Amino acid sequence: MQRYFMLDQPAGPASLTLPKEAAHHLVTVMRARVGSQLELVLADHRAYQATVTSLEPATVTLGPALSSDPELPVAVTLACGLPKTKEKPELIVQKGTELGARRIVFFESQRSVSHWDSKKAAKKLARLEKIAAGAAEQSHRTWIPEVAYLPNLAAVLEEAADCRLVAWEESAKQGEVAALAARLGQLSAGDRLMAIFGPEGGLTEAEVAQMTAAGVTPVGLGPRILRTETAPLYLLAAVSYQLELLRG
Question: Is 137 left (phi over 0), alpha (psi -120 to 50) or beta?
Fold first, then answer.
């Protein structure tokens, strides 16, 4: 069933008029008719069943809130060293949204080749936010991840979190397998997890030292060296396995 977000709309009114973009997609692309069913996510981040009552304008009546909760038990922030190409941030945002990330941050690390000035960052973030919104609808999320840009690692480390990890390829090379599982096992529902990843070429030893001094735990992501766009997705899958499948 198609899902749309109306996060500026508080729950309460029995009848709602869909915003222009959602109305166009529902009526023109999905060919909805009076009586068609859909789902709306409102300001309380809950999904409601709705029924189309009019097409011009596209109006729906709200039904009950759905009981299912598709969100990860912890709020995960992915902090990613800025990759070279525009396709990689788009992939991270799209798939990271599908896998449950709450916030996705790109930052310039010492080995970042690409650089975003203020004008470029605003344009790129607008596109990435649109990708996140589409992926959140497709995967039936109740949150659209925030997408942000920070100028450097120091700014990333100022962000609050209950647990902070950095994916460090040297940990993987040395056969470290316990730190990630141990840290994920210590998380409780409602905690905030930040996971930090390097760009192509990885993080420098100075950056890792800076992070460990700030209390960030270096972890390996298995015995293989992952691409910069793959590592965040591995981490989200591991969080889901640990907190949703193992714990039920």
Answer: alpha
Identical fold between 3-65 and 75-245: no
Say if residue 13 is preceded by a cis peptide, omega within 30 of 0. Answer: no
Residue 117: the pLDDT is: 82
75-81 and 192-197 strand pairing: parallel
Task: Tell me the CATH class for 75-245.
Answer: alpha beta
Average pLDDT over residues 36-45: 96
Round to whole Å and give the CA distance between 148 and 125: 7
Q: Is residue 23 within a helix (H) or strand (E), and if so which, with residue range?
A: helix 20-24
CB neighbour class for 182 (10 Å; exposed up to 12, middle 13-18, buried from 19): exposed
How far is residue 162's CA from residue 191's CA, in Å, rounded to a whole number? 6
Q: Check residue 72 and report its DSSP letter.
A: -
Region at 206 (left for phi over 0; alpha for psi -120 to 50; beta for the rest): alpha
Give, in order, the Cα–Cα distances in Å from 171 to each of 79, 152, 196, 231: 18, 23, 14, 14
- C-alpha to C-alpha distances, 230 to 19, 56, 110, 234, 240, nearest whole angstrom: 35, 44, 20, 6, 16
> What percent of the chain is modeled with pLDDT above 90?
80
DSSP state of 121: H
Architecture field, domain 3-65: Beta Barrel (2.40)
* Residue 219, both tokens: 């972890």
Distance CA 40, CA 8 (A): 12
Of 170, 203, 164, nearest to 184 by C-alpha is: 164
Are 63 and 48 within 8 A, CB to CB?
A: yes
